[in-house]
Design brief:
Layout lengths: L1 H13 L9 E2 L9 H16 L16 H11 L15 E9 L4 E12 L2 E15 L2 E5 L2 H4 L4 E5 L2 E5 L5 H17 L6 E6 L3 H8 L1 E4 L8 E7 L2 E7 L10 H12 L7 H12 L6 H11 L8 H4 L17 H17 L1 H8 L9 H11 L6 H11 L3
Parallel strand pairs: 1-2, 7-8, 8-11
Antiparallel strand pairs: 2-3, 3-4, 4-5, 4-9, 6-7, 10-11
Helix pairs in contact: 5-7, 7-8, 8-11, 11-12
Length: about 400
C-alpha cells in the first residue's frame, strides 16, 4: 500500500514539471528503497526527457563529459511520442520499465514508448540510459562507453578508433589523410573524430542505448553520428568492424556538413565536389568522367541547362549505383572554379542554398564567379567537357 501511495505521489508531483507527459511508473517497477532518492530519480529522468527536443547541449541533465555519446541517443528520442500513421503527436506514451541500481551512485534505467490502436498495444521504442547520482541530482548518459569497455582503442592523428579485435591501420591512416585534406579545403578546424566499429545496425542500436525502435524494423546497416564539444562521434554499423574500408565520397559529405550549415548546402554542387574528390560507388572521378563522356556527352544534342532545371539523367550501371549527369557537370564547374579562384570561391557556390526550381541563386552565384549564365550555359559546359581529362 505504501509503495502504491509513493508511486501515485511521484506521478502527481511530476505533472507540474516541465515535461508535459511524464513517464508512467507502474507498480511493478523496483525503485530505490530510499524514497527521497526514488523521487529524485523519477523527477530527474522526466526532466531529462522533457528537454530532449531542445538542442542536446542545452540539456541540464547531461554532463559535458557525457554529451558526445548521449547526443546520439537523444537524437533517437526526439519526437518519439508522435505517430504519422495515426496522425497523433502524443500517440506513444512513455513507461518506466526497469531500474537497476549498480552501486550507491550509478543506475541502469530502461523505459518504453507504447501506443494503443483498437485495443492493440504498439511498441514504438525502448531505450536504456545510465544514471549518475551527484549532488542530490541525477544525470543521464548513453551506455555506449560501458558497452564497449572491452574493446581496443588506437589514436591516429586527430582520430580515435574503437574496435573489437583488429584495426586495419593502413586504411585508417588513409582515412585520417582524407579528413585532413577535406577539412583544409573547407577551411574547417581540425576537430577530433571518435569512431566505433559495430557489426551492423542492431549492434549500433544496442550499444548506444536503443533497445528497440519501430522505424528500424528490417534494416541491417547504418552509421550514426553526433558533433559536440569540437568532436565528431561516428558509430558505424556497416560490417566494417576492423575499418577495412571507407568511402571518400561519403566522407566528403560528412566533412562538408561539419563546415557548412546543412540548409545552406546546394546538393548538386555538393555531389559534384564528392565526385571530383572522392568518386562514387568506388568508381574514381577519372572513370566517372570517361563514362560521362561516352554515355552522355557523346550526344551533341544534350541540353545541359535542362539537367539543371530538374530533368535527371542517370548514366550509372543501375538506379542503385546511380551517376547523375548534372552532378558530373558540377564537378567540372567546381574543378574550373578551384583552378582559377581557389576553393574559397567553390565554397561560395557550395553554400548558395538548397536546390530549388529554376536554381536562381545557384546561377546568380555561378555568374558572379565564372561569367557562366543561363544564356551561355550550354556552350560553356561543352567547352569544359572538351578541356576535361587533359
Amino acid at each position: 500500500m505504501k509503495k502504491i501511495i509513493l508511486l501515485l505521489s511521484l506521478h502527481c508531483g511530476l505533472l507540474t514539471f516541465a515535461q508535459t507527459n511524464p513517464l508512467i511508473v507502474s507498480a511493478n517497477v523496483v525503485l530505490p528503497k530510499d524514497t527521497l532518492i526514488a523521487k529524485q530519480l523519477v523527477k530527474s529522468l522526466n526532466g531529462f526527457l522533457g528537454q530532449k527536443e531542445s538542442p542536446n547541449k542545452e540539456n541540464v541533465f547531461v554532463l559535458k563529459e557525457d554529451l558526445l555519446e548521449t547526443s546520439i541517443l537523444l537524437d533517437e528520442m526526439k519526437g518519439i511520442e508522435k505517430s504519422g500513421k495515426y496522425k497523433d503527436n502524443n500517440f506513444y506514451k512513455g513507461y518506466l520499465t526497469n531500474v537497476v541500481q549498480i552501486d550507491k551512485s550509478n543506475f541502469i534505467i530502461q523505459f518504453s514508448y507504447i501506443g494503443v490502436n483498437e485495443n492493440i498495444p504498439i511498441l514504438g521504442a525502448s531505450f536504456e540510459v545510465l544514471a549518475k547520482y551527484m549532488d542530490d541530482k541525477f544525470y543521464f548518459l548513453s551506455p555506449l562507453q560501458r558497452n564497449t569497455l572491452s574493446w581496443q582503442t588506437k589514436k591516429i592523428g586527430n582520430c580515435t578508433f574503437h574496435y573489437k579485435t583488429n584495426l586495419n591501420t593502413k586504411v585508417a591512416g588513409e582515412y585520417v589523410k582524407y579528413v585532413a585534406l577535406f577539412d583544409k579545403k573547407l577551411e574547417a578546424p581540425q576537430d577530433n573524430i571518435v569512431w566505433y566499429g559495430c557489426n551492423d545496425l542492431p549492434d549500433v542500436l544496442q550499444n548506444i542505448g536503443v533497445l528497440y525502435k519501430l522505424e528500424y524494423n528490417g534494416r541491417s546497416v547504418s552509421t550514426f553520428n553526433a558533433n559536440e564539444n569540437k568532436t565528431t562521434l561516428l558509430v558505424n554499423g556497416t560490417y566494417n568492424t576492423s575499418f577495412n574500408g571507407f568511402d571518400p565520397h561519403d566522407l566528403w559529405h560528412e566533412r562538408a556538413r561539419n563546415a557548412i550549415p546543412r540548409n545552406m548546402i546546394n546538393k548538386p554542387v555538393d555531389e559534384g565536389c564528392a565526385y571530383l574528390y572522392g568518386g562514387s560507388w568506388g568508381i574514381s572521378w577519372s572513370k566517372i568522367l570517361k563514362m560521362f563522356k561516352e554515355k552522355v556527352a557523346s550526344n551533341p544534342n544534350t541540353d545541359w541547362l535542362a539537367l539543371f532545371n530538374g530533368k535527371q539523367l542517370n548514366f550509372g550501371e543501375s538506379m542503385e549505383k546511380h551517376l547523375m549527369a548534372d552532378y558530373a557537370v558540377n564537378a567540372l564547374i567546381v574543378e574550373k572554379i578551384e583552378k582559377e579562384k581557389g576553393f574559397t570561391a567553390v565554397k561560395e557556390l557550395l553554400s548558395c542554398g538548397k536546390y530549388e526550381k529554376g536554381n536562381e541563386n545557384y546561377f546568380k552565384v555561378l555568374e558572379k564567379l565564372t561569367g557562366i549564365s543561363k544564356s551561355n550555359f550550354n556552350e560553356n559546359v561543352w567547352a569544359l567537357i572538351k578541356k576535361s581529362g587533359k
